[in-house]
Write a structure and sequence with these properties.
This protein is mainly α. The chain has 21 helices and 7 strands.
Length: 669
């Protein structure tokens, strides 16, 4: 059996810690009395909920934590939509190409630029292919593709669950059970982690792997931590290596530069060679995709670079942090506040090693927030790598702040009781009372002290419960708003494939001659909400882009032949310039058109450009409510509370139009 190693540089915790060690002994005694009459019940209770009996206090064991986290993450995998078009076109579409042989390609995948790594996609492609082959015979091609999509999501969700559980387990050892309980509450209540845990994005992959690497780091498993950072940076997103600067410094100080260099080489070189080999194979030339990505973003060419895709100020990240992490984001303010209070009022940490641990282990998230906050181009997903680290930092800081507060109240009470004790002792000496009387007086005094500690324990735990419940409430309202307000695209494409296209057997109520024909599914301004070809039944059903108000560069289909990823598509550029070849010019041949109907505010010209199907040939076959953000004020559109915020919501209609001219209604087959 592998035994977990307790970090050697962890300072011994004080014997009496307000709200933790000292008062937990009383609560454990109470639990012992309650369970003393049933040894079997006592054994079951301790094995299920008190795995860390060597440490004071209570916290759920890792099996319980894993099960609860897995329930939430798998729910996200099956319920969440796709909110970022980069996820669709830069990852789901190339994954679809690897698995099924066709898909849409962005300019980043053109061998001319080679910014994206296929190495990242290969494990997910293996999962998708395995599930696709296992379910093809039983469910048909469309259900097979849908199963593959959700299998990839569940695979990632369980990976995230394992990493979070590992970090939770490590926080118990490094910072104690109260901080671990708060961390568990914060990650469960976070809408950002709820979504990022299943997003097919390098930033989400980096979040998962860095969570596991941090867990190893906290308990002194340095070699494994270095490997985790290498995987996150080389296979995932190279920029996240900056998060590991404090880790590198700490490892060098603890184990020496030689060991750190050796571990870095042993971890990095094989991963680098793997990435180089895979990408060179798919691009057809020697390629180091992570290096190309760094050069493009850090040293862009003139009129190129990430700023082309929009710039925001610091308030963008501040707002998104509060939405995605709610109380965990707000409580980050405690970190600098505790350092201000340390020594000014009272020492926050009883030992120097505890203070140093807060500097080393809690600083990575601040480094990342500083770096990202100073970049003009900001995207919500860029914060994902530190979501779990923010939750850990806030949990530890909140626990430290509560310990400080209750230690101050305890000090005042002890001082007051000592003053009263001195007065009583003087009176006793004057009256000449004997020792037996004195001993009789001290016993109720000890009982009062014990009750005082129990009261502080109850107050601290009650405050933590209130924070956790408030975080759950805010997080649930935010998650519900995203699911209810923006779930229409996946729901509509699912209905299109399952009901209208009859799982790939052809359009309903159409002549049999059309069943084997190519079916063009056209989109205009709603191109960026397409959930990927995983939601279309087969290769004869093609997404087509028509002209709209968007004038940037759109994806094109991969060359559909062996090693088509090596072909350079025409018209691709790094300047986000529109290419005329990206459009489907035969708009009269659009069999279906999918659009968000904002007709109450459209001008006539916008109406003509939005729908290529003539008005007399339009049949809208399905529609779903979609939150009209521009007409719904904040904070109502960010949170959904039944009976409260929904009356302020304004909806538009997400619709599928059928072209009766090219797809006449006839006798079904």
């Amino acid at each position: 059996m592998v035994r977990r190693r307790i970090p050697t540089d962890t300072a011994k915790r004080p014997a009496k810690r307000p709200g933790d060690a000292s008062s937990s002994s009383s609560s454990q005694s109470l639990a012992n009395q309650m369970l003393s009459r049933s040894p079997a019940l006592r054994a079951a209770f301790l094995s299920s909920f008190s795995r860390y009996r060597a440490l004071p206090g209570w916290t759920p064991n890792i099996i319980t934590s894993f099960c609860v986290l897995a329930l939430v993450r798998v729910a996200s995998a099956t319920m969440s939509g796709i909110e970022d078009c980069d996820e669709t076109y830069n990852y789901w579409e190339p994954l679809h190409y690897l698995v099924f042989g066709y898909g849409l390609e962005t300019w980043e995948y053109s061998p001319e630029f080679a910014l994206r790594s296929y190495t990242y996609l290969l494990p997910f492609a293996a999962v998708a292919k395995l599930i696709a082959r296992a379910t093809l015979q039983a469910h048909g091609i469309w259900q097979m593709k849908k199963n593959a999509f959700y299998a990839v999501r569940i695979f990632q969700a369980l990976g995230c669950t394992a990493a979070e559980t590992y970090l939770y387990d490590s926080i118990v050892w490094r910072f104690g059970k109260p901080a671990a309980r708060l961390f568990l509450a914060f990650v469960l209540a976070s809408p950002g982690i709820f979504r990022a845990s299943v997003e097919l994005l390098p930033s989400s992959f980096a979040m998962i792997v860095l969570t596991a690497a941090t867990a190893s780091w906290l308990v002194g498993e340095f070699e494994r931590a270095v490997l985790g950072v290498a995987v996150a940076a080389i296979i995932g997103w190279p920029f996240v290596a900056a998060i590991a600067v404090p880790m590198a410094f700490h490892i060098i100080m603890r184990r020496g530069l030689l060991d750190f260099t050796r571990w870095t080489i042993l971890s990095g070189i094989p991963l680098f060679l793997l990435c180089f080999g895979v990408d060179s194979y798919f691009y057809g030339k020697p390629v180091i995709a992570p290096l190309n990505l760094v050069i493009y973003n850090v040293f862009p060419k003139s009129d190129a670079g990430p700023d082309l895709f929009g710039v925001e100020d610091w308030k963008y990240y501040a707002f998104n942090m509060l939405l995605n992490l709610n109380f965990a984001a707000a409580l980050l303010i405690l970190y600098p506040l505790l350092w201000v209070l340390d020594g000014l009022i009272k020492e926050v940490w009883t030992t120097r090693s505890e203070a140093i641990a807060r500097i080393i282990f809690l600083s990575p998230c601040f480094i990342w927030l500083f770096i990202m906050g100073n970049q003009p181009h900001k995207e919500e997903r860029f914060l994902a790598p530190v979501y779990t680290l923010v939750a850990m930092t806030s949990a530890v800081c909140l626990n430290d702040a509560l310990d400080l507060f209750f230690s101050l109240t305890s000090s005042r009470q002890i001082s007051h009781e000592k003053k009263n004790e001195d007065q009583e002792q003087d009176e006793t000496e004057e009256e000449g009372e004997n020792d037996e009387t004195t001993q009789g007086v001290s016993e109720p005094r000890m009982s009062r002290t014990r009750r005082s500690f129990l009261l502080r324990l109850v107050m601290k735990n009650a405050f933590c419960i209130v924070i956790a419940l408030a975080s759950f409430a805010v997080g649930a309202a935010r998650i519900a708003a995203a699911l209810k307000g923006y779930g229409a695209p996946i729901a509509l494409y699912t209905k299109l494939s399952a009901q209208e296209l009859r799982y790939g057997t052809g359009p309903s109520n159409s002549p049999s001659s059309l069943i084997s024909s190519d079916i063009n599914i056209c989109v205009g301004k709603e191109w960026y909400r397409f959930p990927s070809n995983f939601f279309l039944p087969g290769p004869q059903y093609r997404l087509r882009f028509i002209r709209s108000n968007f004038k940037g560069l759109l994806p094109k289909y991969f060359a559909e032949k062996k090693l088509g990823s090596r072909m350079i598509p025409k018209g691709m550029n790094m300047y986000n310039k529109e290419d005329p070849g990206q459009y489907f010019n035969h708009t009269e041949n659009c069999h279906y058109f999918i659009d968000l109907d904002l007709s109450t505010r459209k001008k006539k010209a916008e109406q003509d450009a939005s729908n290529p199907i003539p008005l007399e040939d339009q049949i809208y076959i399905w529609e779903e409510d979609f939150l009209w953000a521009e007409r719904t004020k904040q904070p109502y559109r960010s949170f959904f509370v039944p009976g409260v915020t929904e009356k302020y919501w304004k909806y538009a209609k997400y619709r599928i139009y059928r072209n009766r001219n090219v797809l006449p209604m006839g006798k079904g087959n």
